[in-house]
Design brief:
Helices cover about 35% and strands about 25% of the residues. It is α/β, with parallel strands linked by helices. It has a single domain, classed as 3-Layer(aba) Sandwich (Rossmann fold).
Amino acid sequence: MSQSQLADTPNVGTRLGAAAVTDAQQTVKLPKGQISTVAIEKSYFKGDHKIPVLRGVEIAVNQGEFVSIVGQSGSGKSTLLHLIGLLDTPDVGEILLDGDRIDDLPAKTRDQLRNHVFGFIFQFYHLLPELSLLENVLTPLMIRHSLWSFWKQRRELREQAHEIIAKVGLGHRLKHKPSELSGGELQRAAIARALITRPAVLLADEPTGNLDSDTGREILDLLISLNEHDRLTIVMVTHDDSIARQAHRVVRLKEGRIEAVGRAA
């Protein structure tokens, strides 16, 4: 993308003026991180059969809030998270960031938002097996920068990655490949990769789902710390009520509809 293309793209300059990108410096004035959905509907097709997944879902997540989305398998919670993070588009309804609609923006602009505004943590980590921990964490910045821009800033960017990797407790694992890491270390690496872009919103899909209870608690404590100390907005999907209750609020989905919204106990 050319310099300031995100801010200059039609509709973005007026509707998402807070997200200004300068390609030469790769500096971003991030949005506040307030996310909301308006009457979201989403269906998938299996052959000729239409399968409704979300039916008129409306939620709002405030800046600096930690919200859990819970529900049984098939309730639509992961689909909702993917829609919020612009990994998919709704059939009906709107996704809003700080009050501005973002789901209908041009594809390149949505790519930029995913790289600058949203950080993603997945249940199965999705680390590249041929890369070291450090290289995996740097991949979002490799995508963000041109080859020449990344090369010029490589020392600064590597220092930034070192700092974040140390923050998640993996400073001694920089050169290790994913196959040499434990489950908890893999998830910490995935969190570091999500944080390297300095996102306004962190989206976590079952971040403790593949971990034992003790390791899962460590990952949850890390997320809580990021929310409390860095004021990072977090939306987390989980099937575990005990984990969900550690957030500020719990949104419960059932058969694609919001069954209940309440303060965590």
